[in-house]
Request: fold
Amino acid sequence: MSAPTHLALDGLAAQAGTLRIFRQVFAVLAREAGAMIGDLDHLDTDEAILAAFAGAGTDGLTLEQVAAACRPADERLVARRFELLRSYGAITRVVDRPHERYHRAAFAPYVMLLFLRRMAAQGGQSELHQLLTLEGIGIRSPEAAAPDARASLRRLVTVFRLMANQLSGMASTSPVEELRENAELLWGNRQLIQQAQDVHAVVLARWPDLDRECTALRTALGAYGDASDAAAARLIEQAGATRALGLLPVETWRTFARTADVDQLAAVLDGLLFDAPAPWFSPQAIGAALASSEQAAPVRTPPPRPVTGTDGTDPADADRRDGDDAPDLRTLVAGLLAGRDEITLDDLMGTGDGWPAGRRLLARLTAAHHHPDVEAELVWGDGLQVDPDAPVPWVSEGVLRAGPRSAPPPAPDGGSAR
Amino acid sequence: MTVAADALWWARARARGPLRVPAGTVAPEGLARLVEPDGRDVWILPVPPEQAGGGAIEEFGLSGTPPEQPNDTARLLAAVVRCCWTDPTAAIWPGADVPWDAVTSVFRHYADRDESAFLRAAVAAVRRLHGAGWVLWDERGRRVRLGPRVAGWSAADLTVLRELYRQMPGPREGRPRDQPQDRPRDQLLEPREGDAG
Reply:
């Protein structure tokens, strides 16, 4: 038998469909039932054999030469097909004598093969068109007589009846897959019917007495039209659910896409509702996205601060300026000195309301003393003044003095206000 | 308002996202109405209950409608929120109308790449967000606003967003330091940034 097959299921189905057409075509020629080829490889081998003969010229080929020419094919298979073709007369001996080894091939089998392939691929549409054209030419010729027209009409009636029967049977009962395989029967049915109607009109005009046959043709055409409509309706109904784009030939789709206007193209999607693009961004996802980003530099989280600096200055400058209290201290010192050159600490502490105020004042004076931009200094003495009635009972001797600081800072360990 | 009209409104909102209609339009219950700042138009936005909102998809472990480049898109949305949400203590809609450069200055903190890749990522993200109604982008005028979909964030979501808002750098600090050619334009925009934020 043939080599182990590598086809998937749908490939096998396609092969089966092709073989079915062949079987139907050859049914009228078969000598006995069950003698039909069972594998498409056989056909390929036949084709290769015939091609080898075509290239061989008039001398013919021996079986061994044929097998060598069909090299990739299995040698035993080639031999078997060779014998079969010879038994049917497709291959004959060059000289009819015993032990003649050279053979030549007839051309008719190859033409038949070509026809079969096209029949399987296109469902015999073009053959039907040709048939109709030929019938049309036949009945229009001046030599045509009424019997010719009657025969022509009968052939057409038979063809369309058979097609209508097959289609209506499939449209009503068969599984939709079978209908889809035979969808090529539906293609171009309008043109077929139109052509047949032309033939019908010519016949009716030339031989009015053939009206019975013409009526038969009309009804056959009507039946074919109805059957193809029903089958197409079922296919379209199924196609709407399955989006089977293979129902029409590819070129038909392309033609539609190129020639359709916007409304027609949009009508393809009638009845479908598309959601607006609505991705949802949860704040958690946003946070994760931010955290996972590759940042140029770590972003410091600034502490919350009062809204200042609306004048457009750099916040860093504002920081520095805020920290710089020189004008503040100058104002303080000038206020305390009030024009004098110096003032004792005892006098200053006496004006406050006790320890807390004294402490604050002393802190600011110390800051003024240490600030490089403030021209004031605190000079400490050794003594300690005690006055139990004063707000601050004990005060170290010290003097706040205006002007630049004297070079050696006095020892600050003379005691604080405490 | 009949049942059919209600269904039609919901179908429209589903098919086209947030709808912008004149202010006088009558819309059915359950659809939030967001008034445009100029008061002439209203956005119609379906706002389901919180437990059935957009966040529910994540809770069920489903993928929803993932945007392309989800991280960049989310970062740009965060940048827009940072720039347009004028007062984080108040409602997020409608927000302010800010220059596109302000948004990119924030976005740059989270997508520091070379200039062309950065701009491409930013424009792609804002287009996606604009298409989905999260952001309104005036491409010609180079202005950005928050889109009506932000009104779908619940109060809990906004709390999380406020925290993010606090952590993110503002548009002013995001000025590109290493690109002097950008500086004059940024300075020109500063008064408007000040107005916006």
